[in-house]
Amino acid sequence: MLKPWLSTTMKVDLMLLENQLPFFVLQQIFNEAFPNRQDNNGGVLPSLLQLSFEYFAYYNNQRLEASTDVSIQHFTDMLRKFHLRQGLPAREDRNEETETYLHTATELEEAGLKLSVYQSKKCYLDLQYSRGVLKIPNFTVDGHTEILFRNLLALEQCHYPQEAYVTDYVRILEFLIDTGKDVDLLIGNGIMTNLLGNNNAVADLFNSLWTNIIQVNFNSEYLSLYKHLKVFHNKSWRARIQRCYYRLYSTLSQTAATSTAMVLLLILLSITVAVLFFPPEHKGNKNFWP
Is the dihedral of CA 77, 80, 81, 82 positive or negative? Predict the structure, then answer.
């Protein structure tokens, strides 16, 4: 029986893209080792795919079944399938007009957007926007989240550049999460469970995931959501008031800073003139002033 720490270490190693063997090779070895698929008691052993699904059950949030219709290339590919959903939307090619910026969760919330957990959905990729409400399924960030996403991103970069659905999802999160304040907002709305403990560490994690990622197209459904959120923020009266306040505050701050500097300069100039042309008199000490 493996110790828990060793089992966890092995599971992480089996997630890494560079450690993968083609699943058909593992299947052939399994068939050679268990030709009749019977255990010592005469019972039927589960298939290798079923054993793999059970071993990585923690990541199988949708509880997908290991049926004969499921085909995987290797373990990392299987983890990617755990995150996908049925009926994936068609993708749109990226062009010069494709959006490249989205406001953070805090900025959208300050503009009046309501962030809500999508409780009826088990697939992480199911994001929905409707009438000022953005619904996001709950997801957990732990010590292995970065490893998982980096390997899924690398897999899609190499083998699924035209179907990079996990990449699209990470891109949306990378936009929404910029600072620990955004993480705190998602946690407060039940969207994120943070097992790292440090909200700033979570923000740094998602900000660093997009390094060296090339995205040649974007999920059309996410692109629609993306544009709706941007329009919502731009039309929000709260956002307009905030922008006006920021501009006014910046102008007043600059004016106040300039005025303060001028006053200080005049005071220093007055003191200098007074000292040079009107030196103080000191009785009884003729040599005090040259």
Answer: positive
Q: Diameter of the chain by CA atoms?
A: 119
Token pair for 79: 């983890």
Contact 111, 103 (CB under 8 A): yes
Amino acid at 63: R
Bridge partners of residue 67, in order along the sequence: none
φ, ψ of residue 219 in degrees (nearest 5): -55, 125
Give the start-end residues of each E strand in the chain. 91-93, 114-117, 128-130, 133-136, 139-141, 192-194, 217-219
Q: Note whether 165 and 125 are within 8 A (CB).
A: yes
pLDDT at 288 over 70: no
Give the C-alpha separation, 52 to 67, whole Å. 12
**Residue 112 burial (C-beta neighbours within 10 Å; 0-12, 13-18, 19+):** middle
Instruction: For 63-118, write each residue's pLDDT tens digit.
Output: 888 887 889 999 999 999 999 976 555 554 444 445 678 899 999 999 899 999 99
Reported as a single tens digit per residue, the pLDDT across 2-35 is: 787 888 899 999 999 999 999 999 999 999 988 8
Q: Where are the alpha helices (DSSP H) in 210-285?
A: 220-235, 237-277
Closest CA to 231 of 96, 115, 129: 129
β-bridge pairing 139-141 and 114-117: unpaired
Q: What percent of the chain is helix, strand and coil (3-state, nearest 5)? A: 55, 10, 40
Determine contact, residues 131/211, Cβ cutoff 8 Å.
no
